[in-house]
Design goal:
Elements (H helix, E strand, L loop, with lengths): L11 H9 L3 E6 L4 E4 L1 H7 L3 H4 L10 H16 L11 E5 L5 E13 L2 E10 L1 H23 L3 E6 L4 E4 L1 H7 L3 H4 L4 H5 L2 H15 L6 E9 L5 E12 L5 E10 L1 H47 L8 H28 L2 H6 L1 H15 L3 E7 L7 H22 L3 E8 L3 E8 L13 H12 L3 E6 L5 E8 L1
Parallel strand pairs: 11-12
Antiparallel strand pairs: 1-2, 1-5, 3-4, 4-5, 6-7, 6-10, 8-9, 9-10, 12-13, 13-15, 14-15
Helix pairs in contact: 10-11, 10-15, 13-14, 14-15
The structure holds adenosine-5'-diphosphate and magnesium ion (MG).
The site of magnesium ion has 4 residues, from α14.
């Protein structure tokens, strides 16, 4: 075997290189007849040297490509030159077993004893091609997925610039994918009042100070200047060295969903208020009028009293006092249910009245401390604050058994701060099982974008603070 077996007669170095090259090498004459092949070439095509020598080179090519190849070969001979390997051109080859191969071919020629020989350097790139096809397939799949998903896919690099955004994302932003890529996310697509806090959060993620995968919500601003509320799931992307070099976020536009939820909450609260009004009216007009009528009948009895003994007179007086008290109580309940005083005189007066009722009906000392203009408030806000205070005070009285309750309400230019403090038994906020009271309070606060904080412990005392932006 070897070069010597053919009519070529090379020097020893040349033969050594030819025999041991990891590349497959094939030599043909100018008519495409194979005159030599190295061991790797024989391995590749699965022919023996005897079989391959004298064979038409086109036998190593699938039938349908033979004609094209012959033309190429003839063209090469006509315009002698070189074709480099890895020039990106691939050719399909065929083994003796008919298995197909993806090949990359480099071509060269040499004049040998007045004859032109073509030297082919052949690399088997079948495996590489398989991988590339696989990767392309995966990429395509990912692209398709990014296209059909109803959520935003966004990748930001460490400079806060958009690296990738899918179709849904660019549609929500109102810019094309091309326009969006490379733009600073925070500067271009976040509302001013959320820009810095989100930047801060993003930096914390990059620094690994936040969990690798997390969820948050923020508004974005689209090209029309409209705000959209997005619920994000974020995860960090690490490079080969394990450093975080991008953040991938998957976002769902929850604007309409949240509006619907808010509308439901509002409808529930409006319904409650309507029901309270109806009850107040019924107490006042129904039960209240009935008690008035009983009072009038009692009054009518008064001239007859002198005909009766002292015990009878005492019972009569007792009934009258109890009836008066019941009447007062019903009026107070009806007033609390539908605080007309709130509409007529504003929040401060309504809270003062609430304080008086508590002073009268309980042994708890209620200290009011009201600051700022509580009169000219939006009706919705003042009614919500009134209801919240009512709930917190009644919670304190019912659950805490306090001696004192302090109520602070302070209005400043941007917000209203409400604090209800008691010196009762306290509770563990971690173990709080919220009833209707606290969950109603939460609904009201969510609608007003307010926040609340509970400071309480089983050592005693509770302080609940509420902050409502104006
Ligand atoms: N000021 C308070 N002191 C002690 N416990 C309280 C206080 N406020 C609320 N709680 C606790 O929180 C629970 C939930 O309150 P809430 O949601 O208003 O429901 P409810 O008053 O109907 O029980 C109460 O049952 C009580 O255990
Ligand atoms: Mg309650």
């Amino acid at each position: 075997m070897g070069l010597k077996t053919s009519r070529l007669n090379p020097d020893p170095l040349c033969e050594l290189l030819f025999e041991n090259s990891t590349q497959a090498i094939l030599i043909t004459d100018s008519n495409g007849k194979i005159i030599q092949a190295n061991p790797n070439c024989l391995n590749l095509f699965e022919y023996s040297l005897d079989e391959i020598i004298g064979m038409e080179v086109e036998k190593l090519i699938p039938k349908e490509l033979k004609q094209k190849h012959t033309a190429h070969r003839e063209d090469f001979i006509k315009n002698l030159g070189f074709r480099k390997l890895h020039s990106g051109l691939t050719l399909t080859g065929i083994k003796k077993s008919k298995e197909r191969l993806s090949l990359e071919i480099g071509l060269s020629y040499v004049k040998y004893e007045n004859e032109l020989l073509v030297v082919c350097f052949i690399s088997d790139v079948s495996e590489r091609k398989k991988w590339i096809t696989q990767i392309r397939y995966q990429q395509n799949l990912l692209k398709k997925y990014l296209e059909v998903t109803g959520t935003i896919f966004l990748i930001l690099d460490v400079q806060e610039n958009i690296v990738l955004i899918n179709k849904v994302g660019s549609e929500i932003l109102g810019v094309s994918e091309k326009e969006a890529v490379g733009k600073n996310w925070f500067a271009h697509f976040l509302p001013l009042d959320e820009m810095e806090s989100m930047r801060y959060f993003f930096k914390k993620m990059l620094n690994g100070e936040v969990e690798d995968t997390n969820t948050h919500e923020n508004n974005i601003i689209n090209s029309e200047g409209d705000k959209r509320l997005i619920e994000w799931n974020n995860t960090v992307i690490r490079n080969k060295s394990g450093e975080i070099d991008a953040i991938l976020s998957n976002g769902l536009d929850v604007t309409e969903k949240r509006l619907l939820e808010d509308a439901k909450k509002e409808a529930l609260i409006i319904g409650q208020e309507m029901e309270r009004r109806r009850l107040a009216q019924e107490l006042h007009d129904g039960v209240g009028q009935a008690i008035s009528a009983i009072g009038l009948n009692l009054n009518a009895l008064e001239p007859e009293l002198e005909n009766y003994n002292l015990r009878f007179k005492a019972i009569y007086t007792d009934i009258k006092i109890k009836l008066d008290n019941t009447f007062d109580e019903i009026r107070a309940i009806s007033k609390n249910l539908s605080p007309k005083i709130l509409e007529d005189y504003g929040l401060a007066k309504a809270l003062e009245f609430l304080g008086e009722t508590i002073d009268k009906s309980t042994k708890v000392e209620l200290n009011l401390s009201l600051h700022g203009d509580l009169k000219n408030l939006d009706n919705k806000i003042s009614l919500s604050i009134y209801r919240i205070v009512q709930e917190l005070i009644s919670n304190a009285i019912r659950h805490a058994k306090p001696k004192n309750i302090n109520l602070y309400v302070t209005r400043s230019s941007h917000n209203i701060l409400v604090i209800v403090e008691d010196d009762g038994i306290g509770f563990d906020p971690e173990k709080l099982t919220t009833g209707l009271g606290i969950s109603n309070l939460k609904s009201r606060l969510e609608l007003l974008k307010g926040q609340f904080n509970i400071d309480s412990s089983t050592q005693g005392g509770t302080s609940i603070s509420i902050n409502i932006p104006l």
